[in-house]
Specification:
299 residues, nine-stranded mixed β-sheet, four-stranded mixed β-sheet
């Protein structure tokens, strides 16, 4: 089972209608997206997160319960509002973000029980919580507990300049968390932010790098492969990286690192390529996730 822990929020996706910007409310948050997508792609998945005791929190909790996850733990925080991410799309479907996030609920997370941790094979941790000391402490503690329990730990960089304004300080914080992970996902831009020499030095970790329309690559123990993606015309790239990563993790769930041959890793990331690409054909991170049958047509 893939246990995803971290932010759940509302993506407010803007579009122009009659000369005005109109926002559509969509469920989002990178680790929540991964949990929903992994379930859609055939894996067992669970999610732990927090929302405010408000209208948006009710929407997200109801939406989450309809996803059929194997385990769901969402804390309703009466002291905080639910996190919002305003998303603006350009003519290519690419996004820019603006977060409504001051003392919001996403990093006030409930504790993961030993029983739930024991049922997981991969523990996937979101990054938004790292902007707060409370969240950093929580993430590091959970990742150490997961390792102590013999679990694989996954981490998505998901660097947002609207949240993390001081890149140098943030990179130092991230590196402490990356050191606790077994599987790490970077975007091409994030590799530039962290430095290719540093990323290349993560030899004992499985490093997955998304390259946009060029596909992706993996690096592991001195080997690497670049993998092309399918040719489609995107409508909205929101959640594409999360669908990609959910596809990868869903193929690696129940495997062990000693089984990660180049063939196994290339199969997993090829699968992720197709998942991420097909998810861009509709609006929102979750509403238009491809089915396993749709994915299979492209493999």
């Amino acid at each position: 089972m893939i246990l995803c822990v971290g932010e759940i929020l509302a993506d407010m996706i803007g579009s122009v209608k009659d000369g005005q910007i109109v926002y559509a409310r969509k469920a989002g948050g990178a680790p929540f997206n991964v949990a929903c997508a992994a379930k859609q792609f055939g894996a067992h998945s669970a999610f732990v997160g927090s929302v405010g005791d408000d209208l948006i929190g009710t929407f997200l909790e109801d939406f989450a319960r309809e996803r059929g996850l194997d385990e769901l733990l969402i804390r309703r925080d009466p002291q905080c509002n639910t996190t919002l991410a305003f998303v603006q799309l350009d003519e290519h479907g690419d996004r820019s973000f603006c977060f409504y996030r001051k003392n919001t609920a996403d990093y006030h997370l409930p504790e993961v029980s030993d029983e739930l941790l024991d049922r997981a094979h991969i523990v996937h941790v979101g990054s938004l919580m790292l902007s707060e000391e409370k969240g950093r402490t929580y993430a590091a503690s959970l990742m150490r507990r997961a390792h102590a329990a013999g679990k694989l730990v996954s981490f998505d960089i998901n660097f947002r300049t609207d949240i993390f304004r001081n890149a140098e300080e943030t990179v130092a914080i991230y590196r402490e968390i990356i050191a606790l992970a077994d599987i790490v996902k970077f975007s091409e831009d994030e590799v530039e932010t962290f430095g290719n020499e540093y990323v290349s030095g993560l030899r004992e970790k499985l490093v997955c790098i998304t390259l946009g329309k060029e596909g992706c690559m993996w690096r592991y123990r001195g080997e690497e492969r670049m993998l092309a993606t399918i040719d489609i015309r995107p409508v909205d790239t929101t959640g594409a990286g999360d669908a990609f990563y959910a596809g990868v993790l869903s193929r690696l769930d129940e495997t062990q690192p000693q089984e990660w041959t180049p063939e196994v890793l290339s199969h997993a990331l090829n699968y992720g390529n197709v998942c991420g690409a097909l998810n861009t054909l509709g609006h929102g991170a979750i509403d238009h996730l491809p089915t396993r049958e749709e994915i299979a047509r492209w493999l």
